[in-house]
Design brief:
Layout (H helix, E strand, L loop, with lengths): L1 H8 L4 H27 L12 H30 L6 H19 L6 H9 L1 H13 L9 H20 L8 H33 L10 H20 L5 H26 L8 H28 L9 H27 L9 H23 L4 H28 L6
Helix pairs in contact: 2-3, 2-14, 3-4, 3-6, 3-8, 3-12, 4-5, 4-6, 6-7, 7-8, 8-9, 8-11, 8-12, 9-10, 10-11, 11-12, 12-13, 12-14, 13-14
Length: about 400
Amino acid sequence: MVASWYRFFFAAGFRPFFLLAALHAAASGTVWALWLGLNSLGHDLALPIAPPPPLWHAHEMLFGFLSAALTGFLLTAVPNWTGTAPVKGRWLLALVLLWLAGRVAFWLSGWLPPVAVIVADTAFWPLLIWLIGSALFKAPTKRNQPFLILLTLLWAGNLADHLGIIGVLADGGSLARQTTLNIIVLMMVIIGGRITPTFSRNWLVNHQAALPPEALPWLERATILSVIAVALIDLLTTALPEQTGLLIRASIAALAAVLLGYRLWRWQPWRIAAEPLLWVLHLGVGWLALGFALRAYAMLSLAGPLSLPVLDLTAALHAHFIGAAGTLILGVMGRASRGHSGLSLTAGRLMSFSYLLAGCAAVVRIVGPLLWTSSPLVALSVAGTLFSIAYAVFLYDFIPVLLIKTSKQ
């Protein structure tokens, strides 16, 4: 019985890693919301972590939650891209154990030597890169090989964040975290740009509905290049005067927002509004465009020439994290889990509810501190709570799908 379940559970990467991503989001989001709530009341929550809780939160969301969700997606998609066998069995178990070791080490970093925490938390990436690379280099096309570069940069960002936390980097790792988020946004732009219009067109064909216009190759290239430019400009403008750097960054972010918005408009998302499994993907891509628009506004408001009401840049960045990543990951995990389990590609009420909760969490995180100026930590705590509940709902709905073998599998 145990051996049979082991072969089933570790036969596909999406099962353990989507489960871990959702568990992590629900658990770490709850801890973060609790810490924020207690601090708003003048109390503290003692945690066995070395960095300040805000740095712990940022690190765990980037290199815990997002890394698990990304790994689950790539381990599922790469075999389809390359025609190779999926990573399973002992290799998949090894990946899971390394990811868990990193999480345990960082959550207990206050009790462990920094070097041990760094080694435990970064050991996951080389194995993932090797396993993904082994498949991608066997494919006849090189189209997907750039993902190896992006994964390597995420590995470097993980290491740089640790070096910032222990004081080796003067900025405390803030640039590493910003660059890591930009890389993840780039991956969402690429992946979302592939799966969202493809899945939508398939659904429209099955429903004998009119199709949106074909993709414009120049628009796809320009959109991706604009997001790459945002990441590079964020790095290069650190050497420029602050106002000049902010204005340049705002201009590139605004261009990315326009291109992403135009690409989304051409997909005609209103045509698939009847299917939550599809509209959540369009919603996530919409958050990508809005995130860059908010970044542009935030940087213009900080630069000062237009005397705009100031928007905190971290609030704008959360449009990408909670808004885009939060909704896209729910959508992708739900669709992949159902599709690869032989279930119908439709979303029930619980799935749709989780999408709405994630969207509400993003809105509260961005707008809440502006409206609740006397106690912004309460607004942040509410946003964290909504985010945690969204993924708890996903877990409630999908634990049977991820853990129990059906007759169709």
